[in-house]
Amino acid sequence: MKANPFVYGKEVSGENFYDRREDFESLVATLAGGAANVVLYAPRRYGKTSLAKKALGELSRRGFRCIYFDFMRVESVPAFCEAYASSVYALERGAVRAMRRIGSALASLRPKFTVGDDGKPALELDRAAVPTVSTVEGALDLPEKLADGKHPVVVAFDEFQEIGTLSPDIPLEGVFRSCIQRHRSVRYLFLGSKTHLMKRMFGDRARPFYNSASVQRLDVPAEAETAAFVRARFASAGLRIGDAAVRRVLAASKGIPYHVQAVCALAFDAAVGAGRRDVDEAMVDVAVVRLVDSKSDLYETSLQSLAPAQRTLLAALARNPVGRFDAKYRAAHGLGPSSGVHSALAVLTGKGLVESTPRGYEIGDPMFALYLASPAYQLFAR
Ligand SMILES: Nc1ncnc2c1ncn2[C@@H]1O[C@H](COP(=O)(O)OP(=O)(O)OP(=O)(O)O)[C@@H](O)[C@H]1O
Ligand SMILES: [Mg+2]
After folding, report:
1. What pTM was computed for the model?
2. Which of 8, 10, 11 to mutate to test the pocket of ligand 1 (most atoms within 8 A of CB)?
3. Domains observed in the chain
4. pLDDT of residue 117
């Protein structure tokens, strides 16, 4: 029997990636055209990182030099400077002029140039040194200064909303914005999964990045695309999935790529475990129950951190996603006055538990929604 053809939890590419052709083409065209920087935002697990990396792959083939940088990986300003300058240094393949540039831009952080265990050029900064605004500017300007005008650079900043957490002393958002807007040879792609923070960062008049980029929202792929992917991946391992079972996958996962792949991976295991070559609805149900079970401790912990009004609102949204909390909805779900609902909603969106999608407010993780709506939880919550 073939290996499980579904992958979840890390970025995907090649045959594990369904094509998202429109999003991909518009991302590549805007970045290659250079008329605007791009913001791509979507709730967690929609496939932002995979799509961005695919776009960077295409841009590299077209002669752009590309940097992918994840803000989740750095915890301080010196760590940012070190990791960012290292990415630029790697792009320049350790060239002497890059070494000089980095050396002078980051002199206050005492850069050391070495060769890593893998034989590649590496850079270390003194993490204990205190960075200033001009140090950060020095790091940010590196790709612009090193670009030779013929091969523009594309920088993708993933989880960009996290710059807000890096330094209490340096107003990073303003520093980033003023550097970036001076750059002529660098195009930027900003990605983020905390959608409420990304929307505010780029949509609030009072914020430095207001209106500074073309905003692309990534939605779940079209159902037909997801269905075709699911069938093809099962078929690649010699299994067949019926139409009703595919619909079940779509309903449970809400079409969110991570959950589609997770449900299918477990359904595949269930089918193989039962010695079957056909995947039916019952196997998808088994997979969903196992998935929800495997996360129940996590869900429990997250519920314990919430006030009762917040839990009630979550349970209501689990049963019934909605666009507006009118009197009828509030009465039906025992929610109390509108002001209380909106402050509970602010907490839940702030924690990334609830998302505002084109379909209304819904629980970001569909397995969490199933957990909340399950009879076992309803009993416990009473
Ligand atoms: N185009 C795609 N085709 C198939 N599966 C995908 C696709 N995009 C994402 N996935 C699935 O979703 C998972 C998460 O993908 P990825 O890390 O790109 O998403 P993300 O939106 O960046 O997530 P996070 O919010 O956690 O950073 C992958 O492991 C894969 O299972
Ligand atoms: Mg990501």
Report:
1. 0.93
2. 11
3. 19-217 (3.40.50.300), 223-294 (1.10.8), 296-381 (1.10.10.10)
4. 82
